[in-house]
Structure formats: structure tokens, C-alpha cells
UniProtKB/TrEMBL annotation:
Residues 1-15 form the signal peptide. Keywords: Membrane, Signal, Transmembrane, Transmembrane helix. The keyword rRNA processing does not apply. The chain crosses the membrane at residues 64-88, 109-126, 138-159, 168-192, 212-232, 244-261. InterPro entries: DUF1275. The keyword Transit peptide does not apply. This is DUF1275 domain-containing protein. It comes from Prymnesium parvum (Toxic golden alga).
Length: 288
């Protein structure tokens, strides 16, 4: 009895539905947008824009980039031999922070977290200086702060050579240095992963018949490798670092480089309204 009853109810409901032609003539459906009907489907998506390679940094920035990349390689060797970690790259420190927290090593987690925090503060400090003053003044102030932090780290190492908390000061200084590099030239000189990707893209484009300049990435990569080789071959001096002021010497090199190059860099960040939302300058990222 249930099946025939359901069949009769369905037939009665179907009898009440309007005819398809009357349904199409309904005023509400006739007022619907034509783009939603089957006869006029939605417009196709816009064509995909072809990527445009960013312009290369000016030739006057090349010695500045080479020097920063070379010192970055030396700094990595020196910091790892002294502290067992890098003060110039924060990826490993972030991993060590999380791993230490997972292993309940609170002292290690605090140390690595402090290094990351100081690096972020140093990077942000230069951005604040660059927004509120001229580019020349911002780089000059960064040079003075870098020299002070490197010298203070050297003094603390002489007083307490077995402690590693001095590296936190270097992390703040390297935040300033890397900010100067990325915000003034648009090129990252402390890491090579992005440059390897750019070289791979340039090789693929060359095979495809497109000419793309990869000189900045190749310059940074070669200078960085040369700095690592120089620091590694100087391992003898690193073993007697208690007698040689290597940290302060590296600070003098960075300070001299920043001070001499402060008048040759690009316009202040506050005047670059077209890249206000970029992570890096237009040499590295294209803003949409």
C-alpha cells in the first residue's frame, strides 16, 4: 500500500508543475542576467600574463653586492665555529627553536628564539630609519650600530668565552646588514637558495630561447662561495680566536663597507610608492 500511495502523490505533484515553456516565460527568470543562461555562458578567464624578468641592479651596486656576499660567507664559517649556529640565517634557528621546545630543552629554545627575535628587530629598525630619514643617514646609522654590536660581542667573548649568548648581538647586527642589502639593492646576499632557483630559471629560459640576465645571482653565489672558502682555509686563525679579535675585525669590515657605500645606493624607501607592499625591491619581486 505504501508504494502505490507514494506513486500517486508524486504524480499529483508533477501535475501541478508548470509547463517548461511557461516556466521559461516567468518574469523572474526573464529578468535573470544573460551571462547565467546556457546560451550565453560565462566569459572565459583572462589570458595568463607572461612573466617579465625584473631589471638587474645597477652596475654601481655590483662591488657592494660582491663584498656583502663575501663577508656573509666568512661570517657563516666564523659564527658556526664559535657558536655552533648561524647568526646570519634564521631558518636553522627557527628549526632549532621548535625542536628544542618539542624536546623540552627550555634553555636552548630560549637562546634560539632570542636570536630570531633580535634578527627581526634589527631588520625592522633599518626599515624604520629608512622611512623616517634619508637613505644616506639610515645606512650611516646602521654602520655605527653594527660596529658597536660587533665590538660589544668581542668584549663579552673575552670575558666569558664559553658562553654563546653573545651571538644574539650579532643576530641583531646581521638583521640590520641584510636589511641594507635587500632594501637598497633588492638582492639577498646572505642566502643562496633563491639565487640557485633564479639560475635554474635562467637556464630553462635559455634552453627555451629566451635571454634572461642572471648576472646578479651568479655574482652573489660566486662571492658567497669564495667567502666560505676563505673562512674555511683560515681555520688555523679560528682555532686561536681567543688571541685574535676576529669578531670585531669582521665588524670593522662591515662598518667600512656600509659607510663607504651609503652615498651610492638607491632612493629612500619612503619615495618608492609603487613597491610599498613588496617584501623586496623591484629587482627581486614584481608587485601585482
Amino acid at each position: 500500500m505504501a508504494v502505490p500511495l507514494l506513486f500517486l502523490l508524486a504524480a499529483a505533484g508533477a501535475a501541478r508543475l508548470p509547463h517548461p515553456t511557461r516556466l521559461a516565460a516567468h518574469p523572474a527568470l526573464r529578468a535573470a542576467p544573460r551571462s547565467m543562461t546556457i546560451a550565453n555562458p560565462l566569459s572565459p578567464p583572462p589570458p595568463r600574463l607572461s612573466p617579465h624578468p625584473p631589471p638587474a641592479p645597477p652596475a654601481s651596486h655590483r662591488p657592494f653586492l660582491m663584498s656583502l656576499a663575501f663577508l656573509a660567507g666568512v661570517s657563516d664559517v666564523l659564527c658556526f665555529s664559535k657558536f655552533g649556529c648561524y647568526a646570519n640565517m634564521m631558518t636553522g634557528n627557527v628549526i632549532s627553536t621548535v625542536a628544542s621546545l618539542a624536546a623540552l630543552r627550555w634553555r636552548d629554545a630560549t637562546f634560539f628564539a632570542a636570536a630570531v627575535l633580535n634578527y627581526v628587530l634589527g631588520f625592522g629598525l633599518f626599515r624604520c630609519l629608512d622611512r623616517r630619514s634619508s637613505r644616506r643617514y639610515a645606512i650611516g646609522a646602521a654602520a655605527v650600530i653594527v660596529f658597536t654590536l660587533f665590538s660589544l660581542c668581542e668584549v663579552l667573548l673575552l670575558l666569558q668565552p664559553r658562553r654563546r649568548w653573545q651571538m644574539v648581538l650579532l643576530a641583531f647586527a646581521f638583521g640590520l646588514i641584510n636589511a641594507v642589502s635587500s632594501e637598497t639593492t633588492g638582492v639577498v646576499t646572505s642566502m643562496v637558495t633563491g639565487h640557485l632557483q633564479k639560475l635554474s630559471n635562467a637556464l630553462a629560459d635559455f634552453v627555451d630561447g629566451q635571454a634572461v640576465s642572471s648576472a646578479p645571482s651568479l655574482t652573489v653565489l660566486c662571492s658567497f662561495v669564495a667567502g666560505i672558502a676563505f673562512g674555511s682555509t683560515s681555520s688555523y686563525f679560528l682555532t686561536v680566536s681567543r688571541r685574535l679579535p676576529l669578531i670585531s675585525g669582521l665588524g670593522v669590515a662591515y662598518t667600512s663597507l656600509l659607510w663607504l657605500g651609503r652615498g651610492e645606493q638607491a632612493t629612500p624607501l619612503s619615495e618608492k610608492t609603487d613597491i610599498a607592499n613588496c617584501e623586496l625591491d623591484t629587482y627581486e619581486t614584481t608587485c601585482l
